[in-house]
Protein backbone atom coordinates (compact mmCIF):
# COMPACT_ATOMS: atom_id res chain seq x y z
CA UNK A 1 0.00 0.00 0.00
CA UNK A 2 2.74 2.32 0.92
CA UNK A 3 4.89 1.51 -2.07
CA UNK A 4 3.18 3.61 -4.79
CA UNK A 5 3.06 6.51 -2.41
CA UNK A 6 6.72 6.01 -1.73
CA UNK A 7 7.47 5.84 -5.44
CA UNK A 8 5.74 9.13 -6.16
CA UNK A 9 7.54 10.70 -3.27
CA UNK A 10 10.80 9.47 -4.76
CA UNK A 11 9.83 10.75 -8.19
CA UNK A 12 8.91 14.08 -6.81
CA UNK A 13 12.19 14.26 -5.00
CA UNK A 14 14.12 13.31 -8.11
CA UNK A 15 12.38 15.92 -10.15
CA UNK A 16 12.79 18.64 -7.57
CA UNK A 17 16.34 17.74 -6.70
CA UNK A 18 19.17 18.18 -9.14
CA UNK A 19 21.96 15.57 -9.14
CA UNK A 20 24.17 18.22 -7.58
CA UNK A 21 22.05 18.55 -4.45
CA UNK A 22 21.56 14.80 -4.37
CA UNK A 23 25.32 14.33 -4.35
CA UNK A 24 25.54 16.86 -1.56
CA UNK A 25 23.02 14.98 0.57
CA UNK A 26 24.76 11.65 -0.03
CA UNK A 27 28.08 13.12 1.06
CA UNK A 28 26.46 14.59 4.15
CA UNK A 29 25.15 11.15 5.07
CA UNK A 30 28.61 9.69 4.54
CA UNK A 31 30.19 12.16 6.96
CA UNK A 32 27.54 11.33 9.57
CA UNK A 33 28.43 7.66 9.11
CA UNK A 34 32.13 8.51 9.53
CA UNK A 35 31.44 10.30 12.80
CA UNK A 36 29.41 7.35 14.02
CA UNK A 37 32.17 4.91 12.97
CA UNK A 38 34.72 6.95 14.90
CA UNK A 39 32.62 6.99 18.04
CA UNK A 40 31.83 3.24 18.01
CA UNK A 41 35.30 2.05 19.09
CA UNK A 42 35.46 4.71 21.80
CA UNK A 43 32.12 3.65 23.23
CA UNK A 44 33.07 -0.04 22.84
CA UNK A 45 36.44 0.30 24.57
CA UNK A 46 35.07 2.43 27.39
CA UNK A 47 32.04 0.22 28.03
CA UNK A 48 34.04 -3.03 27.99
CA UNK A 49 36.60 -1.58 30.38
CA UNK A 50 33.85 -0.26 32.62
CA UNK A 51 31.77 -3.47 32.64
CA UNK A 52 34.61 -5.98 32.94
CA UNK A 53 36.58 -3.81 35.31
CA UNK A 54 33.68 -2.99 37.60
CA UNK A 55 32.48 -6.60 37.76
CA UNK A 56 35.76 -7.78 39.31
CA UNK A 57 36.38 -4.62 41.27
CA UNK A 58 36.85 -4.79 45.03
CA UNK A 59 38.60 -2.38 47.35
CA UNK A 60 41.22 -4.93 48.34
CA UNK A 61 42.82 -4.66 44.87
CA UNK A 62 44.41 -1.43 46.07
CA UNK A 63 46.02 -2.98 49.13
CA UNK A 64 47.01 -6.52 48.18
CA UNK A 65 49.87 -8.02 46.19
CA UNK A 66 49.22 -9.72 42.83
CA UNK A 67 48.08 -13.34 43.08
CA UNK A 68 50.47 -16.15 42.21
CA UNK A 69 49.59 -17.92 38.95
CA UNK A 70 46.43 -19.96 39.41
CA UNK A 71 45.40 -18.44 42.73
CA UNK A 72 42.38 -16.15 43.03
CA UNK A 73 42.03 -12.85 44.84
CA UNK A 74 44.91 -10.48 45.32
CA UNK A 75 45.34 -7.02 43.87
CA UNK A 76 47.86 -4.56 42.50
CA UNK A 77 48.75 -2.44 45.50
CA UNK A 78 52.45 -2.65 44.72
CA UNK A 79 51.92 -1.66 41.08
CA UNK A 80 49.87 1.36 42.11
CA UNK A 81 52.67 2.49 44.43
CA UNK A 82 55.20 1.77 41.67
CA UNK A 83 53.26 3.87 39.15
CA UNK A 84 53.13 6.82 41.55
CA UNK A 85 56.83 6.36 42.23
CA UNK A 86 57.96 6.25 38.58
CA UNK A 87 55.64 9.07 37.55
CA UNK A 88 56.83 11.06 40.59
CA UNK A 89 60.48 10.60 39.60
CA UNK A 90 59.58 11.56 36.04
CA UNK A 91 57.88 14.74 37.29
CA UNK A 92 60.86 15.74 39.42
CA UNK A 93 63.11 15.43 36.38
CA UNK A 94 60.92 16.82 33.61
CA UNK A 95 58.81 19.59 35.18
CA UNK A 96 61.67 21.91 36.29
CA UNK A 97 63.54 21.14 33.05
CA UNK A 98 60.50 21.79 30.88
CA UNK A 99 59.26 24.90 32.66
CA UNK A 100 62.71 26.57 32.69
CA UNK A 101 63.10 25.81 28.98
CA UNK A 102 59.63 27.23 28.36
CA UNK A 103 60.50 30.44 30.23
CA UNK A 104 63.44 30.93 27.88
CA UNK A 105 61.30 30.23 24.81
CA UNK A 106 58.32 32.35 25.84
CA UNK A 107 59.87 35.18 27.83
CA UNK A 108 63.41 35.83 26.65
CA UNK A 109 63.76 34.55 23.12
CA UNK A 110 60.22 34.56 21.84
CA UNK A 111 59.88 34.69 18.03
CA UNK A 112 63.61 34.27 17.42
CA UNK A 113 65.31 31.77 15.13
CA UNK A 114 66.73 29.95 18.15
CA UNK A 115 63.32 29.57 19.81
CA UNK A 116 61.84 28.39 16.53
CA UNK A 117 64.56 25.76 16.16
CA UNK A 118 64.05 24.51 19.71
CA UNK A 119 60.27 24.39 19.21
CA UNK A 120 60.88 22.36 16.08
CA UNK A 121 63.16 19.94 17.95
CA UNK A 122 60.60 19.69 20.76
CA UNK A 123 57.95 18.64 18.27
CA UNK A 124 60.29 16.10 16.72
CA UNK A 125 61.12 14.76 20.19
CA UNK A 126 57.44 14.28 20.92
CA UNK A 127 57.23 12.11 17.80
CA UNK A 128 60.00 9.74 18.87
CA UNK A 129 58.34 6.35 19.52
CA UNK A 130 58.03 5.60 23.23
CA UNK A 131 59.69 2.21 22.74
CA UNK A 132 62.78 3.95 21.32
CA UNK A 133 62.84 6.19 24.38
CA UNK A 134 62.69 2.99 26.41
CA UNK A 135 65.72 1.65 24.53
CA UNK A 136 67.54 4.92 25.19
CA UNK A 137 66.74 4.79 28.92
CA UNK A 138 67.84 1.14 28.97
CA UNK A 139 71.23 2.09 27.53
CA UNK A 140 71.55 5.24 29.59
CA UNK A 141 70.40 4.08 33.03
CA UNK A 142 69.88 0.29 33.17
CA UNK A 143 73.21 -0.61 31.55
CA UNK A 144 75.02 2.04 33.61
CA UNK A 145 73.57 0.99 36.96
CA UNK A 146 73.35 -2.71 36.18
CA UNK A 147 69.75 -3.07 37.32
CA UNK A 148 66.17 -2.40 36.26
CA UNK A 149 64.83 0.28 38.56
CA UNK A 150 62.12 2.84 39.27
CA UNK A 151 64.71 5.52 38.47
CA UNK A 152 65.28 4.06 34.99
CA UNK A 153 61.51 3.92 34.43
CA UNK A 154 61.09 7.45 35.74
CA UNK A 155 63.89 8.68 33.48
CA UNK A 156 62.21 7.13 30.43
CA UNK A 157 58.85 8.69 31.34
CA UNK A 158 60.57 12.05 31.94
CA UNK A 159 61.98 12.06 28.39
CA UNK A 160 58.53 11.13 27.14
CA UNK A 161 56.79 13.94 29.08
CA UNK A 162 59.38 16.63 28.41
CA UNK A 163 58.10 17.86 25.02
CA UNK A 164 54.50 18.01 26.27
CA UNK A 165 55.55 20.04 29.30
CA UNK A 166 57.71 22.42 27.27
CA UNK A 167 54.89 22.98 24.81
CA UNK A 168 52.06 23.50 27.33
CA UNK A 169 54.24 25.70 29.56
CA UNK A 170 55.34 27.81 26.58
CA UNK A 171 51.74 28.26 25.46
CA UNK A 172 50.61 29.11 29.00
CA UNK A 173 53.36 31.71 29.43
CA UNK A 174 52.70 33.24 26.03
CA UNK A 175 49.02 33.64 26.86
CA UNK A 176 49.82 35.91 29.82
CA UNK A 177 48.88 39.44 28.66
CA UNK A 178 51.74 41.69 27.62
CA UNK A 179 50.49 44.44 29.97
CA UNK A 180 51.58 42.37 32.97
CA UNK A 181 55.19 42.43 31.84
CA UNK A 182 55.13 46.10 30.85
CA UNK A 183 53.63 47.06 34.21
CA UNK A 184 56.29 45.07 36.08
CA UNK A 185 59.14 46.53 34.05
CA UNK A 186 57.65 50.00 34.45
CA UNK A 187 57.87 49.55 38.20
CA UNK A 188 61.57 48.81 37.80
CA UNK A 189 61.49 45.03 38.06
CA UNK A 190 64.23 42.99 36.41
CA UNK A 191 63.43 40.25 33.93
CA UNK A 192 64.02 37.69 36.67
CA UNK A 193 61.60 39.46 39.01
CA UNK A 194 59.03 39.96 36.27
CA UNK A 195 59.14 36.32 35.30
CA UNK A 196 59.18 34.74 38.73
CA UNK A 197 56.88 37.14 40.57
CA UNK A 198 54.43 38.25 37.88
CA UNK A 199 54.29 36.11 34.74
CA UNK A 200 54.86 32.68 36.22
CA UNK A 201 52.17 32.98 38.93
CA UNK A 202 49.69 34.15 36.29
CA UNK A 203 50.51 31.20 34.05
CA UNK A 204 50.65 28.54 36.74
CA UNK A 205 47.02 27.32 36.64
CA UNK A 206 47.33 26.66 32.90
CA UNK A 207 50.72 25.01 33.36
CA UNK A 208 49.36 22.73 36.09
CA UNK A 209 46.49 21.70 33.83
CA UNK A 210 48.86 20.74 31.04
CA UNK A 211 51.22 18.95 33.41
CA UNK A 212 48.34 16.97 34.93
CA UNK A 213 47.32 15.70 31.49
CA UNK A 214 50.92 14.75 30.73
CA UNK A 215 51.17 12.88 34.05
CA UNK A 216 47.95 10.96 33.47
CA UNK A 217 49.20 9.86 30.08
CA UNK A 218 52.60 8.91 31.43
CA UNK A 219 50.91 6.71 34.04
CA UNK A 220 49.37 4.64 31.24
CA UNK A 221 52.54 4.38 29.15
CA UNK A 222 53.85 0.85 29.01
CA UNK A 223 56.44 0.66 26.25
CA UNK A 224 59.11 2.80 27.97
CA UNK A 225 58.55 0.96 31.28
CA UNK A 226 58.86 -2.59 29.93
CA UNK A 227 62.62 -2.94 30.16
CA UNK A 228 63.50 0.02 32.37
CA UNK A 229 61.39 -0.35 35.53
CA UNK A 230 60.66 -3.97 34.58
CA UNK A 231 58.33 -5.53 37.17
CA UNK A 232 58.23 -7.08 40.60
CA UNK A 233 55.84 -9.20 42.66
CA UNK A 234 56.67 -7.42 45.88
CA UNK A 235 56.23 -4.02 47.48
CA UNK A 236 58.65 -1.25 46.58
CA UNK A 237 61.58 -1.11 48.97
CA UNK A 238 64.04 1.03 47.02
CA UNK A 239 64.09 3.15 43.88
CA UNK A 240 67.08 1.13 42.68
CA UNK A 241 65.34 -2.19 42.14
CA UNK A 242 62.83 -3.57 39.63
CA UNK A 243 59.45 -1.97 40.26
CA UNK A 244 55.94 -3.05 39.34
CA UNK A 245 53.69 -0.52 37.57
CA UNK A 246 50.02 -0.56 36.63
CA UNK A 247 50.64 -0.42 32.90
CA UNK A 248 53.12 -3.30 32.97
CA UNK A 249 50.77 -5.31 35.17
CA UNK A 250 47.90 -4.88 32.70
CA UNK A 251 50.18 -6.05 29.90
CA UNK A 252 51.47 -9.09 31.78
CA UNK A 253 48.09 -10.18 33.09
CA UNK A 254 46.28 -9.58 29.80
CA UNK A 255 48.54 -12.13 28.16
CA UNK A 256 48.49 -14.54 31.14
CA UNK A 257 46.35 -17.68 30.88
CA UNK A 258 44.79 -17.37 34.36
CA UNK A 259 41.30 -16.01 34.83
CA UNK A 260 42.00 -14.20 38.09
CA UNK A 261 44.96 -12.41 36.52
CA UNK A 262 42.95 -11.45 33.44
CA UNK A 263 40.27 -10.02 35.70
CA UNK A 264 42.89 -7.92 37.45
CA UNK A 265 44.06 -6.69 34.03
CA UNK A 266 40.54 -5.35 33.39
CA UNK A 267 40.36 -3.72 36.82
CA UNK A 268 43.81 -2.21 36.24
CA UNK A 269 42.65 -0.86 32.87
CA UNK A 270 39.64 0.67 34.57
CA UNK A 271 41.93 2.47 37.02
CA UNK A 272 44.19 3.76 34.20
CA UNK A 273 41.27 4.90 32.05
CA UNK A 274 39.56 6.52 35.04
CA UNK A 275 42.77 8.41 35.76
CA UNK A 276 42.97 9.80 32.22
CA UNK A 277 39.24 10.49 32.08
CA UNK A 278 39.11 12.33 35.39
CA UNK A 279 42.15 14.49 34.63
CA UNK A 280 40.83 15.31 31.14
CA UNK A 281 37.43 16.36 32.45
CA UNK A 282 38.95 18.19 35.41
CA UNK A 283 41.39 20.14 33.25
CA UNK A 284 38.60 20.99 30.82
CA UNK A 285 36.49 22.22 33.68
CA UNK A 286 39.34 24.34 35.03
CA UNK A 287 40.00 25.84 31.60
CA UNK A 288 36.35 26.67 31.12
CA UNK A 289 36.05 28.20 34.57
CA UNK A 290 38.86 30.65 33.97
CA UNK B 1 82.91 46.06 43.21
CA UNK B 2 86.37 47.47 43.34
CA UNK B 3 86.03 48.56 39.75
CA UNK B 4 82.96 50.69 40.30
CA UNK B 5 83.45 54.31 41.31
CA UNK B 6 82.69 54.38 45.01
CA UNK B 7 80.56 57.53 45.26
CA UNK B 8 77.34 56.01 43.87
CA UNK B 9 76.48 53.78 46.77
CA UNK B 10 73.66 51.35 47.40
CA UNK B 11 71.28 51.76 44.43
CA UNK B 12 73.72 50.91 41.65
CA UNK B 13 75.32 48.21 43.68
CA UNK B 14 72.00 46.47 44.24
CA UNK B 15 71.07 46.83 40.62
CA UNK B 16 74.42 45.37 39.65
CA UNK B 17 73.94 42.23 41.73
CA UNK B 18 70.40 41.87 40.48
CA UNK B 19 71.67 42.40 36.95
CA UNK B 20 74.03 39.48 37.45
CA UNK B 21 71.19 37.41 38.84
CA UNK B 22 69.06 38.44 35.88
CA UNK B 23 71.69 37.41 33.40
CA UNK B 24 72.34 34.13 35.19
CA UNK B 25 68.63 33.37 35.10
CA UNK B 26 68.43 33.96 31.36
CA UNK B 27 71.49 31.78 30.86
CA UNK B 28 70.05 29.04 33.07
CA UNK B 29 66.75 28.91 31.20
CA UNK B 30 68.69 29.02 27.93
CA UNK B 31 70.73 26.03 28.97
CA UNK B 32 67.58 24.04 29.66
CA UNK B 33 65.97 25.13 26.40
CA UNK B 34 69.00 23.99 24.44
CA UNK B 35 68.97 20.88 26.64
CA UNK B 36 65.65 19.87 25.08
CA UNK B 37 67.33 19.71 21.69
CA UNK B 38 70.26 17.97 23.27
CA UNK B 39 68.00 15.19 24.56
CA UNK B 40 67.02 14.41 20.98
CA UNK B 41 70.68 14.25 19.97
CA UNK B 42 71.49 12.11 23.00
CA UNK B 43 68.86 9.56 22.02
CA UNK B 44 70.22 9.29 18.48
CA UNK B 45 73.82 9.15 19.70
CA UNK B 46 73.32 6.61 22.49
CA UNK B 47 71.09 4.26 20.50
CA UNK B 48 73.48 4.64 17.57
CA UNK B 49 76.65 3.80 19.52
CA UNK B 50 74.99 0.82 21.18
CA UNK B 51 73.90 -0.41 17.77
CA UNK B 52 77.42 -0.10 16.35
CA UNK B 53 78.55 -3.74 16.88
CA UNK B 54 75.48 -5.02 15.05
CA UNK B 55 75.86 -2.41 12.31
CA UNK B 56 79.49 -3.48 11.78
CA UNK B 57 78.61 -7.16 11.76
CA UNK B 58 75.48 -7.20 9.61
CA UNK B 59 75.60 -3.90 7.75
CA UNK B 60 72.72 -3.38 5.36
CA UNK B 61 71.92 -7.11 5.22
CA UNK B 62 70.15 -6.48 8.54
CA UNK B 63 67.46 -4.75 6.50
CA UNK B 64 67.14 -7.43 3.85
CA UNK B 65 67.28 -10.72 5.77
CA UNK B 66 64.64 -12.11 8.06
CA UNK B 67 66.53 -14.68 10.12
CA UNK B 68 66.50 -13.77 13.83
CA UNK B 69 68.38 -16.45 15.70
CA UNK B 70 69.60 -15.78 19.23
CA UNK B 71 71.52 -19.08 19.40
CA UNK B 72 73.51 -18.52 16.20
CA UNK B 73 73.79 -14.76 16.79
CA UNK B 74 72.44 -14.02 13.33
CA UNK B 75 69.99 -11.15 13.16
CA UNK B 76 67.94 -9.57 10.39
CA UNK B 77 64.88 -7.41 10.82
CA UNK B 78 63.20 -7.62 7.41
CA UNK B 79 60.08 -9.30 8.86
CA UNK B 80 59.68 -6.56 11.43
CA UNK B 81 60.30 -3.69 9.04
CA UNK B 82 57.79 -5.24 6.64
CA UNK B 83 55.31 -5.66 9.51
CA UNK B 84 55.72 -2.05 10.62
CA UNK B 85 55.12 -0.74 7.10
CA UNK B 86 52.16 -3.03 6.35
CA UNK B 87 50.31 -2.44 9.64
CA UNK B 88 50.82 1.33 9.31
CA UNK B 89 49.57 1.23 5.74
CA UNK B 90 46.41 -0.69 6.72
CA UNK B 91 45.85 1.78 9.55
CA UNK B 92 46.12 4.77 7.19
CA UNK B 93 43.88 3.09 4.62
CA UNK B 94 41.08 2.90 7.19
CA UNK B 95 41.75 5.98 9.31
CA UNK B 96 42.38 8.60 6.58
CA UNK B 97 38.93 8.57 4.91
CA UNK B 98 37.06 8.18 8.20
CA UNK B 99 39.24 10.77 9.93
CA UNK B 100 38.72 13.36 7.19
CA UNK B 101 35.00 12.54 7.22
CA UNK B 102 34.90 13.18 10.95
CA UNK B 103 36.87 16.41 10.50
CA UNK B 104 34.38 17.64 7.88
CA UNK B 105 31.49 16.61 10.10
CA UNK B 106 32.92 18.65 12.94
CA UNK B 107 34.02 21.67 10.90
CA UNK B 108 30.76 22.17 8.99
CA UNK B 109 27.73 23.56 10.76
CA UNK B 110 25.84 20.27 11.08
CA UNK B 111 25.73 20.30 14.85
CA UNK B 112 24.93 23.09 17.27
CA UNK B 113 28.08 24.06 19.23
CA UNK B 114 26.56 22.71 22.43
CA UNK B 115 26.59 19.16 21.01
CA UNK B 116 29.70 19.63 18.89
CA UNK B 117 31.99 20.41 21.82
CA UNK B 118 31.33 17.13 23.68
CA UNK B 119 31.83 15.15 20.44
CA UNK B 120 35.19 16.86 19.86
CA UNK B 121 36.09 16.08 23.47
CA UNK B 122 35.07 12.42 23.10
CA UNK B 123 37.22 11.97 20.00
CA UNK B 124 40.14 13.60 21.80
CA UNK B 125 39.61 11.10 24.61
CA UNK B 126 40.17 8.27 22.14
CA UNK B 127 43.75 9.53 21.86
CA UNK B 128 44.23 9.59 25.63
CA UNK B 129 43.26 5.97 26.36
CA UNK B 130 46.47 4.05 27.16
CA UNK B 131 47.79 1.81 24.42
CA UNK B 132 47.87 -1.19 26.74
CA UNK B 133 44.12 -0.83 27.34
CA UNK B 134 43.52 -0.97 23.58
CA UNK B 135 45.66 -4.09 23.57
CA UNK B 136 43.62 -5.73 26.32
CA UNK B 137 40.42 -4.84 24.48
CA UNK B 138 41.97 -6.15 21.27
CA UNK B 139 42.79 -9.53 22.80
CA UNK B 140 39.42 -10.16 24.42
CA UNK B 141 36.99 -8.29 22.16
CA UNK B 142 38.40 -7.36 18.77
CA UNK B 143 40.17 -10.64 17.95
CA UNK B 144 37.08 -12.84 18.59
CA UNK B 145 34.96 -10.28 16.73
CA UNK B 146 37.18 -10.18 13.64
CA UNK B 147 37.89 -13.90 13.41
CA UNK B 148 34.67 -14.86 11.55
CA UNK B 149 35.29 -11.96 9.17
CA UNK B 150 38.85 -13.20 8.58
CA UNK B 151 37.63 -16.73 7.93
CA UNK B 152 35.03 -15.39 5.50
CA UNK B 153 37.70 -13.43 3.64
CA UNK B 154 39.93 -16.50 3.51
CA UNK B 155 37.26 -18.92 2.25
CA UNK B 156 35.83 -16.55 -0.37
CA UNK B 157 38.89 -14.61 -1.45
CA UNK B 158 41.66 -17.04 -0.49
CA UNK B 159 42.96 -16.95 -4.10
CA UNK B 160 44.14 -13.38 -3.49
CA UNK B 161 47.57 -13.58 -1.79
CA UNK B 162 46.45 -10.92 0.68
CA UNK B 163 43.95 -13.31 2.23
CA UNK B 164 45.69 -16.60 1.49
CA UNK B 165 46.18 -17.92 5.02
CA UNK B 166 43.57 -19.10 7.50
CA UNK B 167 43.34 -16.62 10.38
CA UNK B 168 44.40 -17.96 13.78
CA UNK B 169 43.15 -15.10 15.91
CA UNK B 170 45.94 -12.57 16.29
CA UNK B 171 47.38 -11.24 13.05
CA UNK B 172 48.59 -8.32 10.96
CA UNK B 173 45.07 -7.26 10.02
CA UNK B 174 43.99 -7.03 13.69
CA UNK B 175 47.05 -4.88 14.41
CA UNK B 176 46.24 -2.65 11.43
CA UNK B 177 42.66 -2.17 12.55
CA UNK B 178 43.56 -1.40 16.15
CA UNK B 179 46.18 1.09 14.91
CA UNK B 180 43.55 2.76 12.73
CA UNK B 181 41.39 3.31 15.82
CA UNK B 182 44.37 4.78 17.66
CA UNK B 183 45.48 7.24 14.95
CA UNK B 184 41.99 8.32 13.92
CA UNK B 185 41.79 11.10 16.55
CA UNK B 186 45.09 12.60 15.35
CA UNK B 187 43.95 12.78 11.74
CA UNK B 188 40.50 14.05 12.73
CA UNK B 189 41.82 16.71 15.11
CA UNK B 190 44.53 18.14 12.83
CA UNK B 191 42.33 18.00 9.71
CA UNK B 192 39.57 19.77 11.60
CA UNK B 193 41.97 22.50 12.71
CA UNK B 194 43.11 23.15 9.16
CA UNK B 195 39.54 23.07 7.82
CA UNK B 196 38.38 25.55 10.44
CA UNK B 197 41.34 27.79 9.58
CA UNK B 198 40.13 28.27 5.99
CA UNK B 199 38.83 31.86 5.86
CA UNK B 200 35.03 32.13 5.88
CA UNK B 201 35.12 34.59 2.94
CA UNK B 202 36.33 31.86 0.61
CA UNK B 203 33.38 29.67 1.55
CA UNK B 204 30.94 32.53 1.17
CA UNK B 205 32.35 33.40 -2.23
CA UNK B 206 31.82 29.81 -3.38
CA UNK B 207 28.25 29.77 -2.05
CA UNK B 208 27.65 33.11 -3.72
CA UNK B 209 28.69 31.63 -7.08
CA UNK B 210 25.96 29.03 -6.60
CA UNK B 211 28.06 26.09 -5.44
CA UNK B 212 26.42 23.51 -3.20
CA UNK B 213 27.90 22.64 0.17
CA UNK B 214 29.85 19.69 -1.17
CA UNK B 215 31.03 21.38 -4.33
CA UNK B 216 32.42 24.06 -2.03
CA UNK B 217 34.08 21.43 0.19
CA UNK B 218 35.66 19.46 -2.64
CA UNK B 219 36.71 22.30 -4.91
CA UNK B 220 37.50 25.08 -2.46
CA UNK B 221 37.85 24.10 1.19
CA UNK B 222 39.66 20.77 0.95
CA UNK B 223 42.27 22.15 -1.49
CA UNK B 224 42.84 25.14 0.81
CA UNK B 225 43.30 22.88 3.83
CA UNK B 226 45.20 20.19 1.90
CA UNK B 227 48.70 20.69 3.28
CA UNK B 228 47.45 20.80 6.86
CA UNK B 229 45.57 17.56 6.35
CA UNK B 230 48.61 15.91 4.77
CA UNK B 231 50.72 17.06 7.71
CA UNK B 232 48.22 15.48 10.10
CA UNK B 233 48.29 12.22 8.15
CA UNK B 234 52.09 12.17 8.30
CA UNK B 235 52.04 12.71 12.06
CA UNK B 236 49.55 9.85 12.37
CA UNK B 237 51.79 7.65 10.24
CA UNK B 238 54.71 8.37 12.55
CA UNK B 239 52.56 7.45 15.53
CA UNK B 240 51.36 4.24 13.89
CA UNK B 241 54.90 3.11 13.07
CA UNK B 242 56.09 3.62 16.64
CA UNK B 243 53.01 2.29 18.43
CA UNK B 244 54.04 -0.66 20.55
CA UNK B 245 51.82 -2.19 23.19
CA UNK B 246 48.50 -2.66 21.42
CA UNK B 247 50.30 -4.04 18.37
CA UNK B 248 52.46 -6.41 20.40
CA UNK B 249 49.35 -7.80 22.07
CA UNK B 250 47.36 -8.56 18.90
CA UNK B 251 49.84 -9.23 16.08
CA UNK B 252 50.92 -12.73 17.13
CA UNK B 253 54.67 -12.01 17.19
CA UNK B 254 55.80 -14.56 14.62
CA UNK B 255 59.01 -14.12 12.71
CA UNK B 256 57.88 -15.09 9.23
CA UNK B 257 56.95 -12.95 6.28
CA UNK B 258 53.73 -13.79 4.53
CA UNK B 259 51.94 -11.81 1.84
CA UNK B 260 48.69 -12.52 3.69
CA UNK B 261 47.43 -9.88 6.13
CA UNK B 262 45.50 -12.63 7.93
CA UNK B 263 48.75 -14.27 9.04
CA UNK B 264 50.64 -13.48 12.21
CA UNK B 265 53.62 -11.17 12.06
CA UNK B 266 55.62 -8.70 14.08
CA UNK B 267 56.76 -5.09 13.94
CA UNK B 268 60.02 -3.42 14.93
CA UNK B 269 58.41 -2.09 18.09
CA UNK B 270 56.86 -5.43 19.05
CA UNK B 271 60.26 -7.08 18.53
CA UNK B 272 61.82 -4.60 20.95
CA UNK B 273 58.99 -5.05 23.45
CA UNK B 274 59.31 -8.83 23.39
CA UNK B 275 63.05 -9.30 23.46
CA UNK B 276 64.76 -6.40 25.18
CA UNK B 277 64.29 -7.45 28.79
CA UNK B 278 65.99 -10.84 28.38
CA UNK B 279 68.52 -9.94 25.71
CA UNK B 280 72.30 -9.91 26.03
CA UNK B 281 75.41 -9.36 23.94
CA UNK B 282 75.01 -8.97 20.20
CA UNK B 283 71.24 -9.36 20.56
CA UNK B 284 71.03 -6.10 22.53
CA UNK B 285 73.11 -4.41 19.88
CA UNK B 286 70.86 -5.79 17.13
CA UNK B 287 67.78 -4.59 19.00
CA UNK B 288 69.41 -1.15 19.25
CA UNK B 289 69.99 -1.32 15.49
CA UNK B 290 66.30 -2.06 15.02
CA UNK B 291 65.42 0.80 17.38
CA UNK B 292 67.69 3.09 15.37
CA UNK B 293 65.90 2.13 12.17
CA UNK B 294 62.53 2.85 13.78
CA UNK B 295 63.90 6.14 15.11
CA UNK B 296 65.13 7.06 11.64
CA UNK B 297 61.86 6.14 9.94
CA UNK B 298 59.70 8.10 12.38
CA UNK B 299 62.15 11.00 12.34
CA UNK B 300 61.88 11.39 8.58
CA UNK B 301 58.09 11.16 8.70
CA UNK B 302 57.77 13.58 11.62
CA UNK B 303 60.17 16.15 10.20
CA UNK B 304 58.29 16.09 6.90
CA UNK B 305 55.01 16.47 8.78
CA UNK B 306 56.41 19.35 10.78
CA UNK B 307 57.67 21.13 7.67
CA UNK B 308 54.37 20.66 5.86
CA UNK B 309 52.34 21.90 8.83
CA UNK B 310 54.65 24.91 9.27
CA UNK B 311 54.54 25.95 5.67
CA UNK B 312 50.78 25.69 5.83
CA UNK B 313 50.46 27.83 8.93
CA UNK B 314 52.73 30.50 7.47
CA UNK B 315 50.51 30.86 4.42
CA UNK B 316 47.41 31.79 6.39
Automatic annotation (TrEMBL), chain A:
What InterPro entries is this protein classified in?
MetI-like (IPR000515), MetI-like_sf (IPR035906), Phosphate_PstA (IPR005672), Phosphate_transprt_permease (IPR051408)
Report the transmembrane regions from the record.
21-51, 79-106, 118-141, 147-166, 198-219, 264-287
**A GO cellular component annotation in the UniProt record:** plasma membrane
The protein in question is named Phosphate transport system permease protein PstA
Species name for this entry? Phormidesmis priestleyi ULC007
Membrane topology type: Multi-pass membrane protein
Tell me which UniProt keywords the record has, alphabetically: Cell membrane, Membrane, Phosphate transport, Transmembrane, Transmembrane helix, Transport
UniProt superkingdom: Bacteria
Give GO MF terms, alphabetically. Answer: phosphate transmembrane transporter activity
One Gene Ontology BP term is: phosphate ion transmembrane transport
**Domain ABC transmembrane type-1 span(s) in chain numbering:** 80-283
Pfam families, A to Z: BPD_transp_1
| Location(s), subcellular | Cell membrane
Family recorded in the similarity comment: Belongs to the binding-protein-dependent transport system permease family. CysTW subfamily.
Gene label? pstA
TrEMBL record, chain B:
Membrane-crossing segments per the record: 24-45, 81-107, 119-143, 172-195, 216-237, 287-309
Give the GO biological process terms.
Answer: phosphate ion transport
Q: What does this protein do?
A: Part of the binding-protein-dependent transport system for phosphate; probably responsible for the translocation of the substrate across the membrane.
Cross-referenced SUPFAM superfamilies: MetI-like
Q: Which family does it belong to?
A: Belongs to the binding-protein-dependent transport system permease family. CysTW subfamily.
Any one Gene Ontology cellular component term annotated for this protein: plasma membrane
Note the Pfam families from the entry.
Answer: BPD_transp_1
Q: Please give the Gene3D superfamilies that the UniProt record associates with this protein.
A: MetI-like
Query: Which locations, inside or outside the cell, does it occupy?
Result: Cell membrane
For molecular function, the Gene Ontology terms on record are: phosphate transmembrane transporter activity
Q: Keywords of this protein's UniProt record, alphabetized?
A: Cell membrane, Membrane, Phosphate transport, Transmembrane, Transmembrane helix, Transport
Principal place of residence: membrane
**Species in which this protein is naturally found:** Phormidesmis priestleyi ULC007
Membrane topology for this entry? Multi-pass membrane protein
The record's InterPro entries line, in alphabetical order, gives: MetI-like (IPR000515), MetI-like_sf (IPR035906), Phosphate_PstC (IPR011864), Phosphate_Transport_Permease (IPR051124)
What protein am I looking at?
Phosphate transport system permease protein
- Every ABC transmembrane type-1 domain range: 81-305
